[in-house]
Amino acid sequence: MQTESKKNGISFWIMIWLLGLAGQLCWNMENQWFNTFVYAKIAKDPTIISWMLAISALATTISTFLFGCISDRKGNRKSLISFGYILWGIFTILFGATQFLRNDSKTASIAGVAFAVVAADAVMSFFGSMGNDIGFNAWINDHMNPDNSGSLGAALAVQPVIGTIVGTVLGGLLVGADDNYMRLFVVIGGSVILLGIVSLLWMRDSENLRPSVKGSFSSQFFSIFNVKEYLKHRELVFVNLMLAVYFISFNVYFSHLGNFMIYYLGFTADTMGLIEGVGLLVAMFTTIPAIKLIQQGKSSLIVLGAVIINALGLLVIGLFVSPTNVNPGSIWNPHLLLGVLFVGIGYMLFLQTVTVWSKRLYPEDARGQFEGIRIIFYVLIPMVVAPLISNPIIKRSGEFTDEYGFTEYLPTNALFLAGVVLVLLTLIPLWAAGKVKED
After folding, report:
1. Is the confidence at residue 109, as pLDDT, over 80?
2. Other beta carbons within 10 Å of 12
3. What phi, psi does 409 have (nearest 5°)?
4. Ramachandran region of residue 176, left (φ > 0), alpha (ψ -120 to 50) or beta?
5. Of 379, 406, 118, 408, the residue nearest 259 (C-alpha)
6. Are 248 and 386 in contact (CB under 8 A)?
7. What is the rounded CA–CA span in Å between residue 15 and residue 199?
8. Sign of the CA dihedral 126, 356, 29, 163?
9. Measured between alpha carbons, how far is 101 from 78 in angstroms, rounded to an integer?
10. Helices (DSSP H) in 224-360: which residue ranges?
11. For helices 181-202 and 149-175, angle between their N-to-C axes, nearest 10 degrees
12. pTM for this one?
């Protein structure tokens, strides 16, 4: 029995790390490289990215609520993970294939290709959310207990960090100076498909997982929209508001950071990936002491520090980084590296702390559906609101004419200065969450 238990423990942690890292790599690729793909292969127009963010966020949210309810009612996470990951990988590759629809001789065709890009991204996000946001995250919650909560919390904290670093550096190397995005999508998409097949054959649901049926499907599905009931979880309400405000700021600048570095500052994709990777790698070490502080109940203090450090990083990039004071042929650009480092530290500390903070507040009988609520604040609201802020800023501050006389819109320093103001607003719901916690 002990041997079997040990074997199950080993297989459990293998799946935690393989599925977790694959998911983080895929999300990083969407957040980091899909936007530079649009500028490289479709058109230098932030409006396409704005539509991608908004529609994929809507698809993600619908997916989390739909499959969260199905998962809770069926008492099954494994099927969502396995089939979600397989479809996620397939549509990642198909997203890259949209570049072959582009016909340079017909400017009018850009609208049709842009529609295909937005649609492919939305479908990919729908299945990615099914497999990762709902299936995998709820599966982790099902297995969490007092004995492993610290280790699982550490894994949840470190995986986004590793995924961001590896995804940024590896993504840049795979895309390369020749802008071969298809190579990136095939490698990452193929890996996710393979892990979906592995999970289908190997992983197990928790023995304690039971179907949670509360009336008809429609009544249970719409019960999660009971605002009065949700507001009873006051601390969770403010934690989710922190997520929304912080990631509105994050999506204002981060969605365009790659294009800012490549098309405004003049770096190649591989050098850009290395610059971000170096900053994030150094920033990763700050998550280690944060794990202990989280366990000691110092979450509010960590978030406060994260927001301030994030704002300082954005200020450095906004004020001291420009095409006239960077060297695109080298990763050694002190102001840019410092800004990326501070932004990375703030992002990592904030995400690891708020992820653990919110998961501890979920009701046990509706974890899947409460992941759906989290996605509203983490994905839907930020990705719908942020483009309404970033798009006009880019259109007003970054309008240029290329060598052929076509108008192109490039992200400039103004985005990062706007991000400073927005990220500091996170302190308002942080203060409120701290007050509720004290009560």
Report:
1. no
2. 15
3. -120, 115
4. left
5. 408
6. yes
7. 7
8. negative
9. 36
10. 227-231, 234-253, 257-259, 269-284, 287-295, 299-320, 334-359
11. 150
12. 0.82
Residue 6: per-residue pLDDT? 44
CA distances from 254 to 30, 132, 282 (A): 12, 22, 19
Q: Which residue has the tokens 């023995």?
A: 207
Tokens matching residue 79: 């099927």
d(CA 61, CA 59): 5
| Tokens found for residue 301 | 């203090």
> Measuring CA to CA, how many Å separate 188 from each of 22, 86, 185?
8, 12, 5
* Type of residue at 131: G
Identify which of 33, 193, 214 has the alpha carbon closest to the alpha carbon of residue 121.
33
Answer yes or no: are the C-beta atoms of 376 and 133 closer than 8 Å: no
Type of residue numbered 417: L
Give the model confidence (pLDDT) of 7-28 as tens digits.
Answer: 457 888 899 999 999 988 998 8
- Name the residue with tokens 């996470």: 77
pLDDT at res. 438? 62
In the chain, the N- to C-terminal Cα span, in Å, equals 45
Amino acid at 386: A
Q: The tokens 């969502």 sit on which residue? A: 80
114, 34 contact by CB (below 8 A): no
Least Cα distance to 207 among 145, 115, 288, 280 occurs for 145
CA distance 354 to 300: 9
Inform me whether the pLDDT recorded for 240 exceeds 80. Answer: yes
The region that residue 297 occupies, defined by phi over 0 for left and psi between -120 and 50 for alpha, beta otherwise, is left
